[in-house]
Design goal:
Strand order of the largest sheet: 2-4-5-8-6
Strand content: 15-25%
Number of helices: 4
Distance between the termini: 42 Å
Helix content: 25-40%
Structural class: alpha/beta
């Protein structure tokens, strides 16, 4: 009754099904791993943002590499902005995907060390980004700033090429080691994204807090792949039974009566 399963068509169909089942199971496992990784990152970010603010020098120092657990921690610093030596970071977008600059201003601490502060986003003044833009001034004098600690930027992590030969006081990536050479000072590792004090007139535009990665979507994809894997053998059985039933019905169909001659 099921000898048709040995036909070329059904052998190919069976082999395809046998390949699809483990492939879909592995894809489901991969999606579950992605779910666990994203959930863990979301928890790290939530823990960091919810932690009590600490003085910046408790978490970083000159030459220090900001760790994953230190990233997004709220830190405070006391000192003054050095606007004479501030930079802009090229090709950065705001919440509306408009291209402009990030403003990177050295913040000189009371002990003489320097903290790099990303004060936020400003639009480009013209059609090109070759001219140094007009930047609103930060508060003057000795102040206290708070912000989220971030690691130095790299091409690998950001996907941004570190182009050379740029106009004066423009960079592609924020790198505390390179800024230490430029400033001739002890620059704390990493930088902070400014939270307070807020700028007057909302310019520069402060950078928003990081959002959660969509971990539940990966969980749903994992379940989807596993349901597909379970559906393959079920579908194979249904097709095989239908084929057997159709063949049996064809054999049992009575032959048509021969026409009677006149």
């Amino acid at each position: 009754m099921y000898r048709f399963l040995l036909s070329r068509q059904w052998v190919i169909l069976t082999l395809v099904a046998l390949v699809l089942i483990p492939t879909m199971i592995r894809l489901g496992i991969w999606q579950m791993h992605r779910y666990e990784e994203r959930s863990a990152r979301n928890q790290l970010v939530a823990d960091a943002l919810g932690a009590k603010p600490v003085p910046v020098e408790k978490l970083t120092s000159p030459g220090h590499t900001v760790t994953t657990k230190e990233r997004y921690r709220t830190v405070t610093a006391v000192g003054r902005f050095d606007t004479d030596r501030e930079l802009v970071v090229r090709r950065r977008v705001n919440a509306d995907e408009e291209v402009g600059f990030h403003v990177l201003t050295p913040f000189v601490l009371t002990d003489g060390k320097v903290l790099l502060v990303n004060r936020g986003w400003i639009p480009a003044d013209g059609p090109s980004q070759t001219a140094f833009p007009k930047i609103p001034a930060p508060p003057s004098g000795r102040i206290t700033v708070t912000g989220r600690l971030m690691p130095d930027e790299t091409t690998e992590a950001s996907g941004i090429k570190d182009l050379k030969g740029l106009p004066d006081r423009q960079v592609m990536l924020i790198n505390s080691k390179e800024e230490a050479s430029r400033l001739g000072a002890g620059v704390l590792g990493g930088y902070i994204v400014l939270a307070t004090p807020e700028p007057k007139g909302d310019t520069p535009e402060l950078i928003g807090k990081p959002g959660d990665e969509n971990a539940p979507l990966n969980y749903a994809y994992a379940l989807q792949w596993w349901l597909f894997a379970a559906g393959v053998p079920v579908g194979w059985v249904i097709l095989a039974r239908r084929e057997a039933r159709d063949r049996a019905a064809g054999r049992e169909k009575p032959a048509e009566a021969e026409p009677v001659g006149v």
